[in-house]
Amino acid sequence: MNLKEIKEMINLMNENDLTELEIEKEGLRVKLSKASASVSGQPAPVFIEKERLDSAARETERKEAAKTNVQEIKAPMVGTFYRAPSPEAPPFIEAGQTVEIGQVVCIIEAMKLMNEIKSEIRGKITEVLVENAEPVEFNQPMFLVEPI
């Protein structure tokens, strides 16, 4: 972010009578805040606070950008999500594994019935979004899949 962009943000604040503006761009967060108007009639000073985003925030941004070609396996019903057929069994699928169409990816317990949920997508599981034994809502994303 260069000085010209910061001056444009200050002008934007002044034109729209804003007292605070925060912008993130390319791993840099800039926060502008204006003190209350001074008695002398001079414009209030603008304070600039720059902060480098931590690696976790940059990783989140990278994941968001990568999600553009990723599809979701969503919960078809309300219930309790289980990753495995029993507590001692291994999970049906893990992040990094390939899932086939029709392959069971989890179980959702609804009204004391165990419902096997099958994938409608062939691809690589990039992320499991729900923890074991957590409740899920209808249409809630449970897995991210990168189609193959």
TrEMBL record:
Keywords: Biotin, Fatty acid biosynthesis, Fatty acid metabolism, Lipid biosynthesis, Lipid metabolism. GO terms for molecular function: acetyl-CoA carboxylase activity. Pathway: Lipid metabolism; fatty acid biosynthesis. SUPFAM superfamilies: Single hybrid motif. GO terms for cellular component: acetyl-CoA carboxylase complex. InterPro entries: AcCoA_biotinCC, Biotin_BS, Biotin_Carboxyl_Carrier/Decarb, Biotin_lipoyl, Single_hybrid_motif. The keyword Protein biosynthesis does not apply. Residues 70-146 form the Lipoyl-binding domain. One of its GO terms (biological process) is fatty acid biosynthetic process. Pfam families: Biotin_lipoyl (PF00364). NCBIfam families: BCCP (TIGR00531). This protein is a component of the acetyl coenzyme A carboxylase complex; first, biotin carboxylase catalyzes the carboxylation of the carrier protein and then the transcarboxylase transfers the carboxyl group to form malonyl-CoA. This is Biotin carboxyl carrier protein of acetyl-CoA carboxylase. It comes from Candidatus Ghiorseimicrobium undicola.
